[in-house]
Amino acid sequence: MGQQYDAIAVRDAEVERVVGPYRERVEVPSLVGALGVVEGASVLDVGCGSGAYARLLRRRGAAEVVGVDVSAAMVAEARRAEEREPLGVRYEVHDLVDLPVLGEFSAAVAVAVLHYADSRRALARMCERICANLAPGGRLLALVGNPRLVADVPQANGFVVHRPEGLRDGDPYTISVPTVPPTMLRVHHWDCGTFEEVLLGAGFARVVWEPLRGLADGDGGGEPVNLLLRAEKG
Fold this sequence. Notes:
Blueprint: H1 2-9, H2 12-35, E1 42-46, H3 52-59, E2 64-69, H4 72-84, E3 90-93, E4 105-111, H5 120-132, E5 134-145, E6 160-162, E7 172-177, E8 183-188, H6 192-201, E9 204-210, E10 226-233
Parallel strand pairs: 1-2, 1-4, 2-3, 4-5
Antiparallel strand pairs: 5-10, 6-7, 7-8, 9-10
EC number: 2.1.-.-
Pfam families: Methyltransf_25
InterPro entries: Methyltransf_25, SAM-dependent_MTases_sf
């Protein structure tokens, strides 16, 4: 995953042009609404990319925000943004599968990260490492790939899912982002029930699927691009 995002980092502005409007209309209000008050909280942003959510949460009053990503190039982009506008966000390069304990955070966010797990074991490790970084009662908010999206149809954010029928958990498929040339992402299929099972097995006590806000008629043919889950550590 790190290598494909290292390549994407060089065209981050173009990808942002495609992704930004849907993120601001749907993903941000949905995630922020489900997360609730972050003022004074400590937040871990896993798969932070160039730091858009980490900066957002710091501006909303989080006392401490740490962003981690497997892509060194993406972390470098995030650090450059921090240099241009110092907010006090710290960024580190880590593979989520082997994420060390960086603290006892009151919340973690994982935006379009978990569907990069290429096996159930890798998915379980990701969830376990996030849980290990949360204080008791801490929350994980994760936007994950919607397994019900119609293939080969442009979605509300411009992405096109290229996915054969009959995929099983862990099977790979690709997503194209309409940049010039198209940016291709390789991700993996995971059913909603599998996310729930793995999170509960990783130490979370409860998993809830949160409603998405800001959806317009026709978005994804009635299906949102991503689904939002909230998991609470026992």
